[in-house]
Each structure stands twice: as structure tokens, then as C-alpha cells.
Amino acid sequence: MSWIKEDAVSFFQLFCIKVIKTGRIPQHIAFIMDGNRRYAKKHHEDTAVGHSKGFEKLSETLKWCLDLGVPEVTVYAFSIENFKRSAEEVDALMDLARDKFQKLLNEIDVINEWGVRLYVSGRLSLLPVDLRKMVSHAMLATRHNNKLKLNIAYAYTGRDEISRAASYLVDGVNNKELIVEDIDEELISQSLDLGEPELLVRTSGEVRLSDFMLWQVTNSVLYFTDVLWPEFSIWNLLAAIIHFQRHAPPSKYEDSSSEEKKQFLAKLENRRWQQLELFLNC
Amino acid sequence: MLSRLLRQFLFTLVHLVVSVLVAVQNVYLRIRTQYNDFSGGEEAANDVEVILRHIPYIIKKPKHLVILTDMTQHTLKDLALVVIWSLVAGVPYISFHDVTGELKENETKLFLEVEKCKKGVPGCIKWSNRPNLNGYTNGIQAHTITINVFTASDGRPKIAECIRKIANNELNCKRKTNEFTAQEFDEVLRQFYPSIPDPDLVMYTGSSCRTYGLLPWQIRLSEFVQLSLDQCINIQCYIGALYKYNKCDQRFGK
């Protein structure tokens, strides 16, 4: 199963995508892919099967987003809290990730052709060394692509992300790269791993954020749907987008950062890539 | 050209059809709630009986209820009644997240309205911002409810302030590795907020759900439950929302 499913769209579906595309398309969609285990239970399968079905759905969804012209997609794949699950399940999930990242590295040419930029957000130091290496490799190999940004929240929680950003900013002041007054809402937003989604979709009927993108969802439209993630279809996605088109607040884009802030952010970005290179070569 | 026009036409048509369907659904729901009307009256005294009748069936009660408040849609009376219902239901903390900023200015008026509605209802109402106005308790088994009013400035800007203070060495904080863990940062940030539990239930009205900058650090496990499809707040939809919350099973992480 590859990362982007090519034959995911029929002619009629493509036509509907084109119709919906006439209106405003969210520039960043976040998904909480919930319901893999309930799906497995419902079909009397192993949980690992549910998770692998969930990944298949992700690759289909990516194709739909590419066709819709959504430039950025963020998915919640694994929370820091998920480490508390049974060792067996955590191992199975790590194996799934190993398998998928290995596949991605094998088909890196295809990914580059699609123009997908992969970014894994989270406390990567919590991951097993070999997986961390693969993840870093995949990120470094796709960093210059720009057609679709795919962010995967892995070993992630929103609180952890805010805490890490706070550390970078405090360090920035200590290293004299910033002054205390520079630290404001905007700079924090820019120091986080993930940008603000315009639409957040949570499947399987749960109606909470579960520590996902807490800072970023301030202006996002939250869309909760009962369908289980492995059963999520293009019609569910289009319904979410129609809901977004009916309720989206006007988008605002303003970047009033000073030169110092921009320099700090550039350095921060640089340090991130250096860290990944370290992970890769360790 | 023709195909673009056709697409645009179909796009408008789709949205029109959705609008019609939503309108039909609204009418249907309104008729259904009227049909299910179990209160019999509108005043607080009767509402109390309604709540007392339902409360034994509600096993999981929220500890901290937040109402997303839009003063262009809700009246002070609506909000005051929610306070009274929550007091009777035994919800210990209620907060209003002021989306438009109007409620913060009119907090005194809300106070007066709550006092007006409270007449004859046992229990004690506390105001986080006005400890000197806190009421008295009548009745031995009466509940206590604490009211807070938050705005977007209690969210992101407070976190920014906290980080500025850490950077300025004004706060004592632990940091074992290069990066704060969520627990370490939480301990510092706590000092900026009243010591109340994180919201476990957020009620909103209308068909669209957004957080409007509600306490980003605290809402990680809050359930967002729709109070009503239109903007109205009444006892039926309040109890309906409590039932909805009751059915949600929480399995964070596991």
C-alpha cells in the first residue's frame, strides 16, 4: 500500500470535486483519524488490521486533498498518551510506522514527483532510534517539495508542542537572539511545529480535541462526524468542506514580524533541520 | 467557459439544497422539542423540578461547564438561567467564554440577573472576580457553584505572558532537559489561572463549532456539545446536552 493512492477517484467523483472546488477550499485541513480499533472490533478483526486499514484510508484521503487543491494536511497519528496502551499494540503501531516509512523511502521518487513534503511533528526523542532515523530521512528527503505539505503528528500532544515552543523562545532570549518583548502570540504561533488549520475533522463521533493542535484551532471550523476513520469516504470529506464553506470565518493573513523575529525563526528552522540530520547520522 | 459556468451553477445549487435541508431539519427539530416538552412552565421555579426529575439519570456530571457566549445571540436572562440550572444539577464550576467581549463589560448586570433568578432556589453562588459579593448558603445540602467569565485574552495572551516572565527569570520553574515537558510548563502556567478544574464540557449554540480562543491549554479533553441548532437556550436543550455528554465515553490515549 503506497502513500498516495492513485486510483482513488472515479470520473463522477472528480466531477463533484471540481464543482466543490469552485468555492473556497480550506488551505489547511487537520484530521483526527479516530475509529480504527472500533472498525476492527466491528468486523471481528485484529486491531493491527484496523490500523492498517486506517493507513490505507489516509493515502486515499491524500489523493482527494491533492485533487481538491488543499495545500496542507495534518493528521494525528500517535499521541504521547498512546504510549500508555498495551506494549503489544504500541509495538504493532511502531512496526506499522516502520513499514510505512520504509515504503516511503523506497518510493521517494514518486513522492517527489507528486510534490509531497512530509513533516513529522512531535517529541521525536521518544521514538525508537531506528524509526527516528527513518522519519528524519524522510523529512530531509522531501523538504523542498511544495505541492502538498503532509504533517504527521507522531509522539505528539498539543501541550507538548506549546511547551517545546516555549523552551525555544526562552532560549532565544537567553542567547540574545530575541528580547523579551518580542515574545507575543504571533511569534509563538510561528515557533510551533504546525500551522493553523482552517478545518479540523474528527471521525468516529468523539467530540473533543484529545490534546491535538490546541493552540492552532482558535479560528478553525471543527467538524465532528460519526463515521469511523476506515469507512471515511470522499462524500464525508466533501460534506465537511461544504460545512466549512457555509461557516468559515474570513481568512486573515498578516505577517507583521520584525527583522529580529524573522531571523530568530530562520535560525529555529535551521536548528530543526540540523537536529534531524543528527538523528539521521547517529 | 461553458463548463465553468456549469460548475458554478452546480456549486450554487448544492449549497442551496444544503441550506434548504438544514432549514427543514431546523423546523423538524423545533417541532420535536415542542412535542417532547416536559417542563410545563418557563420560570426558574418549575425548571428546578424538571432538573431534579432528570438528574438521577445523569451519572457523569460535568465538573466545569463552559458556555460559549455570544451576546448578540444570547440574553443575560438565558445565561442567568443556565447558572441556576447548573446550580441545581450540582455542577460546581460554570464559565462563560465571552466571544464578543460584551459580557465582560456587563458582568454586573449578569450578577443582578442571576440574583433575580435565584430567588427561592437553595444553593450558593460564588463569583471568581468579586469575592466580596459572594452569596450565602441557605439549606444544609445545598450546592455551590462558582462563576467565571473568560475572554480570548485569557487564552493565548496569558500563555505568551507566562513565557515572557519565564524568559525574564521572574518565575521559578524546573526544566530538566533542553525542552520543557508539558508537566513542567503546566506547573508554571497554573499560577496564571484560578485554581479550578479544566473544562470537561463546552456547550455551544448554532450549527458551527469553533473554540473562539477558549483557554487553549485547558481544553485538551473538553467535550464540545451542541446546545441547540438555532441560538436559543432553554431547559429542554440544556438537559438534552447533559444527556449527550453522559453518553460520551472517555478513553483518552488508551
UniProtKB/TrEMBL annotation, chain A:
SUPFAM superfamilies according to UniProt: Undecaprenyl diphosphate synthase (SSF64005)
Gene3D superfamilies for this protein: Decaprenyl diphosphate synthase-like
Signal peptide (from-to): none
UniProt keyword annotations, A-Z: Magnesium, Transferase
GO cellular component: dehydrodolichyl diphosphate synthase complex; endoplasmic reticulum
GO function terms (MF aspect): ditrans,polycis-polyprenyl diphosphate synthase [(2E,6E)-farnesyl diphosphate specific] activity
InterPro entries associated with the record: UPP_synth-like, UPP_synth-like_CS, UPP_synth-like_sf
Top EC class for this record: transferase
EC number annotated for this UniProt entry: 2.5.1.-
The reaction(s) this protein catalyses: n isopentenyl diphosphate + (2E,6E)-farnesyl diphosphate = a di-trans,poly-cis-polyprenyl diphosphate + n diphosphate
Pfam families in UniProt: Prenyltransf (PF01255)
GO biological process, one term: polyprenol biosynthetic process
Superkingdom classification of source: Eukaryota
Sequence similarity: Belongs to the UPP synthase family.
Identification of the protein by name: Alkyl transferase
Automatic annotation (TrEMBL), chain B:
Gene3D superfamilies in alphabetical order: Decaprenyl diphosphate synthase-like (3.40.1180.10)
Cofactor: Mg(2+)
Source domain of life: Eukaryota
Pathway it works in: Protein modification; protein glycosylation
UniProtKB keywords: Endoplasmic reticulum, Magnesium, Membrane, Transferase, Transmembrane, Transmembrane helix
EC primary class: transferase
Organism of origin: Diatraea saccharalis (sugarcane borer)
Annotated InterPro entries: Nus1/NgBR, UPP_synth-like, UPP_synth-like_sf
Pfam families: Prenyltransf
Subcellular location: Endoplasmic reticulum membrane
Record-stated family: Belongs to the UPP synthase family.
Protein name: ditrans,polycis-polyprenyl diphosphate synthase [(2E,6E)-farnesyldiphosphate specific]
